[in-house]
Each structure stands twice: as structure tokens, then as C-alpha cells.
Amino acid sequence: MSAHSGAYRIAVIAGDGIGPEVVAEVLRVLEAVAAPAGFEYETRLFPWGCGYYVEHGHTMPADGIETLSHYDAIFLGAVGDPRIAPEEVAGVGPLLAIRFGFDQYANIRPVKPLPGAPYPLARPEPDAIDFTVVREATEGIYVGLGGRFSPDDPAVAEIVAVRQIFAQSNEIAVQTGVYSDAGCRRVIERAFLLAEQRDGRRLVTSATKANAMKHGMSLWNDVFAEVASRHPDVESEWNNVDALAMRLVLKPETLDVVVAPNLFGDILTDLSAALLGGLGFAPSANLGDGHWPPMFEPCHGSAPDIAGRGIANPTASLLTLVMMLEHLGEQRAAQAVDGAVREVIASGAVRTPDMGGSATTEEMGRAVAEAAAAIVGRS
Ligand code: NAD
Ligand code: IPM
Ligand code: MN
């Protein structure tokens, strides 16, 4: 039985493209396990995203964050539709607004290949890979500061003086990255705490680039060294992000916990998704310090190239559901869904096109729901 009294309140933003397709399977699987696992929940669907933008001129209402603050968790499918809204609209839409609005500074992205999923490397064996990327998600280059200016604008006089080509241009764009010691510290601390919970080797690898980003990354490096000194039980090291990208492919088995600034973590986690067989397998959670709801979302976007065909792989979203259930303390349900996803993928009976099969998103969701209900019934 669950220790939670009352029903969990879950806000669901299905979003655009394949978002609604994969979220439908998450809701199906959640429904299959909740009652047998002994908990209740209610969901409310918010129709936000690019479709909403076309109708209303914004991707979510002005009081959207306030509305969401009353929920226990948020599940987001994917937002973005380059055919109907510029990319900067999709980005600053619900996804970044929620991360920033609820101070969800730790974007947790586990990388553990599933037996039976397509695996791209000749070596090591997939079961040698088991690491988690802890991505800073509230600062750095994502803060949105800067603007597009005429070089004659006095507001950018100092910047224009830095390069001759700036003065010779019609327009310059300034994208300011901001890093704070407190912001770096809380996410790096979280990475060390995560390493401490791991069995076996405990290594935290910092993704950095102080050779080119001398202000932001030297602050990040100083804070990393300070936090590492307070965790002598955990090994630590830093890697320049370019070299780390290579290591993710050539020696991914040498990584346990990777902590990365925002943009580095974004890029490294799509690369990591490739180790899992593609973005259809990569889950993620956005966590703050607990006053506000966390947000659970697969790493992938709205996949316009396959949207509307019912062939998206729902695995990333179902593993994200596992992370949400774990966070809510519903271990039995979490284990059942995790076991069911593994069982279905290992059996090879239901495979979406990215796995080389011809199954639909819904067929995969139904198979996982059935397997999960059976597992939770036995547990
Ligand atoms: P994407 O993640 O949507 O797609 C990249 C590639 O991976 C595509 O070939 C796609 O078909 C494939 N893919 C992704 N998810 C899959 C799944 N579940 N099953 C099978 N294949 C899958 O990245 P993109 O094309 O750069 O972005 C498309 C849109 O989504 C853009 O508007 C972008 O801004 C947005 N986006 C949103 C989020 C989010 O809401 N969390 C994340 C990333 C991108
Ligand atoms: C992700 C996405 C987002 C990010 C975009 C849509 C703003 O790529 O969640 O990985 O860069 O954080
Ligand atoms: Mn991304």
C-alpha cells in the first residue's frame, strides 16, 4: 500500500508532434498500475504548446506557473512545431518557463542501455554502461539575457569594440551566459549526493571548458573543486566537454555521474541517448528543492519527421513515468513499469520502427500496460 493519503495531482502537458502520442501511452500504463499498486491520482491536461500559441499568441497562459504550482508533479510530452511557431517560441514555452519558474535546477538524465534495444557501439558490451548526467538547468547560456542590436547602439559600444567585424556588421546578437557560485554549487552537490547513493564505483566527472569560457567555467571549476573536497568518499575529475563527447562514445563505461552546465548537458544527453538506441529511449526528470512540483519529460522533442503517424517509441516517456513514480514514492508501481518496459523490449515481440520493427506507439503502450499490471499483481 502507498503511504500517500489522497490522490496525487498530476498536471499533464502533452504538447506538440509526438508529445500527445507518447503521453497517451504513459496515461494508459499509469492507469494499469495505480489501483493494483494501491494509490489514486488525478490528471488534468493542459493544452499548451505551439498549437495553443497559434490560437492565443502565447504557448501558455500568464498564470500557467501559478496554476501548475498546486500539482504534485508535471508530466510533459514535447513542445515544438517549427512549421507553425519559431524555435524560440517553443523553447521559452512551457518547458523553460516551468524549469525556471519552479527553480528545477537539476535535470537528471540516466543512461543505462536496455537489453534488446538497438545498440550502436562495437564495444563495450551495453551492460557495462550505467551513468547519469546531472545537467544544470536554470542558468548558463539559457538565462535568455542579451539581445539583437545595431552596432551603433550605445548600449553595446563596449562589445562592438571587441572585434572589428562587429563594427562592420549591420546587426550583432549578444547571448549572455550567467553562472553563479550558488547555482553551480547546488547542482554539483546534487551530483555528489547521487554518486554517494551508487553501489560500486563512485566517480563524478565535471563537463567543463575553462580554456575558452574563462569566466563562467573557471567559477564552475572552483565550485566543483570545493564541493569535491567536501566529499572525500567520492572520486572526482574534470573533462573538457569536447574530450568528454569523444569519451562518451569510446569509453562510456568509465563514467558514473557526469555533472554539466546547461548547454553542455543538453548536447551530451542527446549523444548519450544514441548509446541507448536513440532519443526514443532517454528519460529525464527536472528537480528543484521540493517546494514546487518537479517536471518529468523524455529527453526528446516533438519529432516532426515522424509525428502524426503513431510510430514514435514511447519507451523514453514510460521510463520517465518510472522516474515520476519513484519520486512520488510509489516504488511498487515504478518497479512494475520498469520491469514491463524491459520485458517487452527484451522479448522483441513489439518493436517500433526505431527498433527495426513495425509496431505502433499504441501497440507498445498496450504491451507495457499489460505486462506492468501482471507484475504489480504478483508483487
Ligand atoms: P527531436 O528530439 O524531436 O527529434 C530528433 C530525432 O529523433 C528525429 O529524427 C526524431 O524522429 C527522433 N525521435 C525523437 N523522439 C523519438 C521517439 N520517441 N521515437 C522515435 N524517434 C524519435 O529533436 P528536434 O528535431 O531537434 O526537435 C523537434 C522540435 O522539438 C523542435 O521544435 C525542438 O525545439 C523541440 N524540442 C522539444 C523538447 C521538449 O519539449 N522537451 C526537446 C527537444 C526538442
Ligand atoms: C531538452 C530540450 C530543451 C533544452 C529545449 C527544447 C529548450 O532540448 O530538454 O533537452 O535545450 O533544454
Ligand atoms: Mn535537448
Query: What is the name of the CATH class of the largest domain?
Result: Alpha Beta
Number of strands: 12
Strands in their spatial order, largest beta sheet = 2-1-3-12-11-4-5-10-8-9
Order of helices and strands: EHEHHEHHEEEHHEHEHEHEHEEHHH
Mean pLDDT: 96
In the CATH hierarchy, the architecture of the largest domain is: 3-Layer(aba) Sandwich
Fraction in beta strands:
15-25%
Shape: globular
**What value does the Rg take, in angstroms?**
21 Å
Distance between the termini: 11 Å
Low-confidence stretches: none
Enter the CATH topology name of the largest domain. Isopropylmalate Dehydrogenase
Oligomer category: single chain
Number of helices: 14
* Biggest pleated sheet: 10 strands, mixed
State the helicity in percent bands.
40-55%
Structural class by sheet pairing and helices: alpha/beta
Bound molecules: nicotinamide-adenine-dinucleotide, 3-isopropylmalic acid, manganese (II) ion
Domain count, please report it.
Answer: 3
Structural notes for this entry:
The chain is an alpha/beta fold. It folds into three domains: 1-112 and 281-379, Isopropylmalate Dehydrogenase; 119-135 and 180-276, Rossmann fold (3-Layer(aba) Sandwich); 140-178, no CATH class. The protein contains 14 helices and twelve strands. The chain has helices at 19-37, 50-56, 64-68, 87-92, 94-101, 157-160, 164-167, 181-196, 216-229, 241-250, 262-276, 315-328, 331-347, 361-378, and strands spanning 8-15, 41-45, 73-78, 106-111, 131-136, 140-149, 172-178, 203-208, 235-240, 257-260, 285-287, 295-296. The strands form two sheets. Strands 2-1-3-12-11-4-5-10-8-9 form a ten-stranded mixed beta sheet, sandwiched between helices. A two-stranded antiparallel sheet has the order 6-7. Helix 13 (331-347) packs across helix 14 (361-378). The longest helix has 19 residues, at 19-37. 3-isopropylmalic acid binds at residues 91, 95-96, 266, 299. Nicotinamide-adenine-dinucleotide binds next to helix 4.
